[in-house]
Write a structure and sequence with these properties.
With 1473 residues, the chain is α/β, with parallel strands linked by helices. The chain is built from 54 helices and 33 strands.
């Protein structure tokens, strides 16, 4: 019976009492033999095969055969080699079928053909002549006969070859169609329909279409993603018309503000000729003074010491407390009226303000005590004036005076609008983390409260954001509190949209209102025709070239940038592409002017410094304030605008109104004027930004003239009306007034008068002495020292590297890169990062910590990253850990695997909440060290205890739950692995997570392999060594790992705005609900006939694939992600869950295909797909959330919810399967479908338990495609499309440029560069590597005497050689005597020039004769070589062949003579000479 019920050895299937035993019913596996349909030993045409089928159905239908009552049958006559016995009911009930049945068995090789006669036992009453039919052979019939009144049963002759017969009364039997036998009538109805077993086998032996189809689909998806994203592109937006700002959309009356007060550090007083401006904010103030809505406009400004304000009227004196000290601010006033606007100025006089100058109006850096006191004094003084003047609206500009509303009492509060002129500057202290540690307020926060005269609760609530001190947050939080978020404005509509989307500070605001700046239109209102524009351009170009010292070239195209040299303006990108532009476009001239104001500006200055001599007459660089008249600006062909962030952008408007289109980045307010723009497809990739900028400039330069001049003409028609600006400003005032509700406000100010020293000490102390809390003398002295620090003006924040120091370091680093032979220097961002790391390393005192801060194997990763990565790799994983425990622990514990699964994942859920809660107060290095200590305990020490320790179910349950809690700590290692370089960029996250996940998967498979092999001890020793090593090193982690903790924010803050995050979370939750049923594939392998050794081999294959495949996949994704999020999006959203593919494979395999290699490969592939998909989704979630704080909260939320779903998955899957197919996912005993039952097979149960959930999960992934790009903060659109897919720009079109086009541009530049003799940077490179290579002079002078073009080529080579001589002289490795030799060479070559050329090259001889005593002879030599090289170039183009020969000959002889001098020892005998 078992043979046909599911396999030769299906133990427990026949006996219900055994099957009901819990420890067998769910865990006992079927034997590994093949199904009988596939067993080569079974002949399905053999009569035994058919007889056995008959016996199964006969026994099941006849209740008499299943009774325990049996009697031996007495043979009267016949064959003695047969055995017979009666089976009967002791108490017979009519309708139960046959009362008694006779079973006859023959024990002969060939059955006897004679008849037999058996006596009837007592109690069996058969009538004489009663016929009993042989159920196995209905043609044979026995007869009851009587002789001497004794009834006997006569059996017919010719026993069949089956050697068996079963006789029963004919009236109780029916035929079992289509079989050849009969069954008992009472049980025939309960028999399942008789199937043609040959047909069953043929039907089951399919070709595994679902398996092939599922994994072909998954493979196709991966191939399509890779192929479609392999040829990356840059999308340019070509804007042909200017975009005019729109007015307010809300119709109806508005509440007007009759009195508005604004406060700004920059200021303008037209009546006194006062102008203090550092950028766009000053222009807006000028605009407000002229165009503000009618009413009273009060302006509060600081009074600078170097500005003459004339006679002023004293208004009053203000008494404020700054850093515990009283300060007096004198307020002066003056007034004027213009166009219905009463303008009242209030000028604040204090030593803090007078020490500022109009060239540097803003104090910096934010970390100095002087700067903090400045802003404290400024904001308190503004608050006093608001309280005195009681305006209708306080117009706050940026962060500088955003704290003022906090000092105003509740009864004096006023509505506020916060206008963001540049939200890149928020008044942030970047160096120190201002957050609670160990549930105590950090000293820096207490000290800030004293400086700003605000309570600690106010600092924590209004002035800390993401763990940093942030002044702008005060204004945003105040507006959220009293105006429901209405009143925040941006100076352009697109800039407001970007801030709302990208900056978490503005989350929760209903909107950021557009307040586009206004400008005067062009003088001719754009009525000038194209012909007139061309004439103006021609005249202005000539004047501009003369003004900047450029070559007078009417055909030249001048590219211009005028503005501050800062990172925000992208000036470093301009400097980096300048050489390529000048090489690839001979017609291009470049004008770059402005003061370097940050490290990127200094970097650009260093890059551009050596390019002037290399491109004489084509490059003008001025690193000071540079005033260029408007008429000269008309001469430019294009205006550079590659800003990384731009609130509005005045420069593109100013140049556009003069007929000069822009080329650059469409970001913020840029892109409104006609021009060619790129968008930041990956804002974290310097390569993408640089290449896209180069591509857009190249495209703009190659535009047809007709298209270009139409664009230039359209730019002159741009209008940014003051009426629109005034209407929008009035609407902003109305919104603030309408929604203003003062609410219940507590007093936030600390002191209104000068506090005593005791009050200051209490405020900065984290604890005070009381009767219940004693304080040591040392602690009391420490508090007194803190008070003295305030008195002595001691700095309490970490100080940043000064700009001067950064400049020196950058200059030195770039020079060292060239000397070390590097082909190109690092970009500005990398240099700044290295400087910060170097400064941090210098502040560390421990040698171990300094060692951890060094790069790992000359890569961009630090050694501390490797330590954290090792901790992550060995951290326990749920699936592999349960398998390892299941193989290694004592099986006598009466806990089933579904209970293990539930307990473990409930532990994970609780652990995620625990680790997240601890992250709010405990530094990350201690959390990670605690995790490693727990790993030693629960992964090494506890499992090493005796098996008797695990005999108790409570112990095992506790052990599993604690391991689950420990497993939840793995997220800490991922998040803090990005501590130094987590910018929200999928580039970094994708690659690193892929590598870590591959190593972690391999480590998990290694644990499973060793568990199957009984070598758990070896794995525990590995874990012990790694855990202890990382534990010790984590205690010595750098300061940034010891000072941080999760900022105190709402648990959902920063998460609610991201639709794709929630869709992916829902997808993962559905996938987790199917996790138990889909992760029992190790049992599936066994049911398919694979042995334990085979499973070990499969685990090894998974381990090797993880190590080899995942880094390749994620490395490829990283490469493609440089150009945008499409590859990452497609991979995360289109790759199907491996659980769905596994369920299809198990259903498809059915009960056949014993030891199917395809099935085994399918399970391996599905596991790898799950790993890849999980890592992609995890990296995508981190990227969507944007920074490590939101990633920590969001990903722990993911772990918690998915763990809860995983713990429920055994019972969810069981319920679904039982309700649909009547089979359980727990019954992993056989793959067969039960015989004679309406229930389904294990494959059907798994398919229904997993399939719908996994399919729904996949559907949500596909829906995420719609929102993914808009949630990636580093993706800011492409072409003329914004991240959400909406189009922008007036008459704008998108042009796709393959990245391969950039290779062509660079090749052209390289060819032009080689033909021109190379660049100065490369000359320095060669010099520093090899010393002065004088052989180049001789090589450069070799020539051909046959063709004129070859002569010109050799003359160009001579020019190149002379240029190299000049660069050699600049090398620090060249001695004075070697420089003298080089001067002599230049002098000899110069003397060989034609007479009309000698005067131009006479500088060489003059310099050579007078070089002694020169402060920098190398630079003199460089200038001489540049002049001489230019002269040789002219000779090669103008003189005849004899002149060319003369030049080449002299150059050759000069080189030979110099070589002879060196060989004779005249070079000083140095190796370099």
């Amino acid at each position: 019976q078992d043979f046909f019920a599911g396999g030769p050895l299906r133990l427990g299937a026949a006996v219900a009492g055994v099957q009901a035993q819990r420890h067998i019913g769910r865990s006992l596996m079927a034997a590994n033999g093949p199904h009988w349909c596939e067993d080569p030993l079974v002949d399905r045409n053999n009569s035994i095969y058919h007889l056995t089928r008959a016996l199964i159905r006969i026994r099941r239908s006849c209740s008499a055969l299943r009774t325990d009552t049996e009697l031996p049958a007495e043979l009267v006559s016949g064959d003695r080699n047969e055995v017979a016995y009666w089976k009967y009911h002791e108490t017979y009930v009519p309708g139960q079928g046959p009362h008694a049945m006779l079973v006859v068995l023959k024990f002969q090789a060939v059955p006897d053909k004679g008849s037999s006669l058996y006596a009837l036992p007592e109690g069996l009453d058969f009538d004489e002549g009663q016929a009993l039919v042989d159920l196995l052979n209905p043609a044979r019939m026995a007869m009851v006969v009587s002789k001497d009144n004794v009834k006997r049963l006569l059996l017919p002759a010719e026993m069949p070859e089956a050697h068996a017969a079963i006789f029963a009364p004919n009236g109780d039997l029916v035929a079992d169609e289509p079989g050849f036998w009969m069954v008992c009538s009472d049980g025939a109805g309960s028999l399942p329909p008789l199937q043609d077993m040959a047909a069953v086998c043929e039907t089951g032996a399919g070709r595994l279409i679902l398996t092939w189809g599922g994994f072909s689909f998954a493979l196709l998806v991966m191939l399509v993603v890779f192929i479609s994203n392999w040829r990356s592109s840059i999308y340019l937006s070509v804007v042909k018309e200017a975009t005019q700002p729109s007015g307010p959309a809300r119709p109806g009356p508005r509440k007007e503000a009759q009195h508005v007060l604004t406060a700004a550090i920059e200021h303008t007083i037209p009546d006194r000729g006062v102008k203090v401006s550092a950028g766009g904010l000053g222009k807006v103030l000028d605009q407000m003074l002229k165009e503000h809505p009618k009413g009273t406009l009060s302006l509060v400004h600081p009074k600078f010491g170097d500005v003459d304000y004339g006679d002023l009227e004293k208004y009053k004196e203000l008494q404020v407390v700054v850093d515990g000290k009283p300060q007096t601010v004198v307020v002066y006033t003056l007034s004027s009226e213009l166009s219905g606007v009463q303008r009242n100025w209030y000028l604040l006089d204090h030593e803090f303000f007078e020490e500022r100058s109009k060239r540097q109006p803003y104090p910096s850096p934010m970390t100095t005590l002087r700067t903090l006191r400045y802003f404290s004094l400024w904001n308190q003084a503004v608050a006093h004036l608001i309280q005195d003047l009681q305006p209708d609206v306080y117009h706050c500009m940026d962060y500088h005076a955003a704290l003022a509303p906090l000092y105003i009492p509740k009864e004096c509060r006023v509505p506020v609008i916060l206008v963001l002129h540049n939200a890149d500057y928020m008044g942030i202290v970047e160096t120190d983390f201002i957050n609670n540690r160990f549930w105590q307020t950090v000293p820096a926060l207490r000290r800030l409260g004293v400086v700003f005269n605000l309570k600690k609760s106010a600092i924590r609530k209004y002035m800390t954001f993401e763990g940093r001190f942030n002044m702008l947050k005060a204004g945003v939080a105040y507006i959220k509190e009293v105006q429901a978020g209405h009143g925040v404005c941006a100076v352009s509509a697109n800039y407001g949209v970007e801030l709302k989307r990208e900056r978490a500070l503005f989350n929760g605001l209903p909107c950021i209102m557009a307040l586009d700046n206004a400008t005067d239109p062009a003088e001719d209102q754009g009525n000038t025709g194209i012909d007139t524009l061309k004439k103006q351009r021609f005249q202005a170009k000539e004047a501009l070239q003369a003004h900047c010292g450029l070559d007078q070239n009417p055909e030249a195209k001048i590219l211009i940038f005028i503005g501050r040299w800062v990172k925000q303006k992208g000036v470093d990108h301009i400097a980096m592409i300048t050489p390529s532009l000048l090489r690839s476009h001979p017609e291009v001239q470049i004008v770059l002017a402005g003061p370097p104001d940050d490290a990127c500006g200094l970097y650009a200055e260093e890059l551009l410094a050596p390019l002037g001599p290399r491109f004489p007459g084509r490059l003008f660089v001025c690193t000071e304030f540079f005033a260029l008249p408007a008429e000269l600006r008309r001469g430019a062909h294009l205006c550079f605008a590659p800003s990384c962030s731009e609130p509005f952008g005045y420069v593109d408007v100013e140049f556009g109104l003069l007929g000069v289109p822009s080329v650059g980045c469409a970001i913020g307010g840029l892109g409104k004027m006609p021009g060619v723009y790129f968008r930041q497809q990956n804002a974290d990739s310097s390569r993408m930004l640089l290449d896209a900028f180069l591509c857009s400039v190249d495209y703009a330069l190659d535009m047809p003239d007709a298209d270009y001049w139409e664009m230039a003409h359209a730019a002159t028609k741009a209008t940014f009306p003051f009426d629109t600006w005034r209407e929008n400003l009035t609407e902003a005032y109305s919104q603030a007034i309408t929604h203003f509700k003062p609410g219940k406000a507590e007093e936030l100010t600390l002191w209104h008068t000068s506090p005593a020293a005791e009050k200051i000490r209490n405020e900065i102390s984290h604890r005070t002495k009381s009767r219940f809390r004693a304080m040591s003398s040392a602690r009391m002295v420490a508090q007194q020292m803190q008070v003295l620090d305030i008195k002595d003006d001691a700095e309490f924040l970490t100080q940043t590297v000064t700009e001067k120091r950064v400049h020196e370091i950058m200059r030195e680093t770039m020079a060292q890169d060239l000397q070390r032979g590097k082909s190109k220097v690092k970009d500005a961002e990398t240099l700044q990062r290295n400087i910060c790391l170097a400064e941090q390393r210098l502040t560390e005192r421990s040698d171990v910590t300094q060692w951890l801060m060094k790069p790992l194997a000359r890569t961009q990763y630090l050694r501390i990253h490797a330590v954290i990565a090792l901790s992550y790799i060995i951290s326990p994983d749920g699936d592999t850990m349960l398998k390892a425990i299941g193989e290694s622990e004592d099986s006598s514990v009466s806990l089933t695997d579904d209970v293990w699964h539930q307990i473990f994942y409930l532990g994970v859920a609780f652990g995620s909440l625990l680790w997240l809660g601890l992250s709010r107060a405990v530094p990350p290095n201690l959390l990670m060290a605690s995790s490693q200590l727990a790993t030693v305990l629960f992964s090494v020490l506890v499992p090493s205890l005796s098996h008797s320790f695990f005999a108790n179910s409570v112990v095992v349950s506790s052990f599993l739950a604690l391991n689950g809690m420990l497993s939840a700590s793995r997220l800490l290692f991922i998040i803090w692995n990005f501590n130094e370089d987590f910018h929200g960029g999928f580039q970094v996250a994708c690659k690193r997570i892929g590598i870590l996940e591959s190593l972690r998967t391999a480590a998990g498979m290694l644990a499973v392999v060793l568990s199957y092999g009984g070598m758990e001890y070896l794995y525990r020793q590995i874990v012990l060594m790694v855990s202890l090593s990382t534990l010790i090193l984590l205690f010595k982690a750098p300061h940034c790992y010891c000072a941080y903790s999760l900022p105190s924010t709402g648990y959902l803050e920063g998460l609610l705005e991201h639709k794709s995050f929630w869709l992916l979370l829902a997808s993962e939750m559905l996938n987790s609900l199917a996790s138990y049923a889909s992760q029992t594939y190790y049992d599936w392998w066994s049911l398919n006939g694979w042995s334990s050794s085979d499973v070990v081999h499969f685990s090894i294959v998974i381990m090797l694939l993880s190590l080899c495949m995942l880094p390749v996949v994620f490395g490829t994704l990283t490469r493609m992600s440089v150009w945008g999020p499409w590859a990452m999006r497609d991979f995360s959203c289109m790759l199907p869950p491996g659980a769905l593919l596994r369920a299809l494979a198990l259903y498809d395999i059915g009960y056949l295909h014993h030891r199917s290699h395809l099935f085994a490969a399918a399970l391996i592939a599905s596991y790898c797909i799950d790993v890849v998909r999980g890592a992609c989704i995890f990296a995508s979630m981190m990227t969507i959330l944007g920074n490590k704080w939101y990633a920590l909260k969001g990903c722990y939320l993911v772990i918690f919810l998915t763990a809860v779903c995983s713990s429920l998955s055994p019972y969810i899957g069981h319920s679904i399967a039982m309700n649909i197919v009547g089979a359980s996912v727990f019954g992993r005993v056989t793959l067969d479908k039960p015989v004679g039952s309406a229930t389904g097979s294990l494959g059907e149960a798994i398919l229904w338990a997993v399939g719908p959930l996994a399919a729904a999960s996949y559907l949500l992934q596909l829906v995420t495609l719609r929102f993914f790009n808009s949630d990636i903060l580093t993706f800011k659109g492409h072409g003329n499309m914004l991240p959400d897919g909406s189009r922008t720009g007036t008459s704008a079109s998108t042009h796709r440029v393959p990245v391969s086009k950039l290779t062509q541009i660079r090749r052209m530049a390289s060819e032009a560069y080689e033909g021109a003799g190379g660049g100065v940077a490369d000359l320095k490179l060669k010099t520093s590597e090899q010393g002065p290579d004088l052989d180049l002079i001789e090589c450069g002078s070799q020539r051909s005497s046959n063709a004129a073009d070859e002569r010109r080529s050799e003359a160009a080579a001579s020019s190149k050689a002379v240029s190299r001589v000049g660069s050699m002289g600049c090398s620090d490795h060249v001695s004075e005597i070697e420089q003298q030799i080089l001067f002599n060479i230049l002098d000899r070559v110069g003397s060989s020039l034609p007479d009309d050329m000698r005067s131009r090259s006479s500088v060489a001889g003059a310099s050579a004769s007078g070089m002694t005593g020169q402060r920098d002879p190398g630079m003199v030599l460089l200038r001489a070589a540049s002049e001489l090289s230019h002269s040789i170039s002219e000779v090669s183009g103008e003189s005849d062949s004899s002149d060319e020969d003369s030049v080449a000959d002299v150059a050759a002889s000069a080189g030979a003579a110099a070589a002879a001098e060196v060989s004779n020892g005249e070079g000083g005998g140095s190796d370099e000479a």
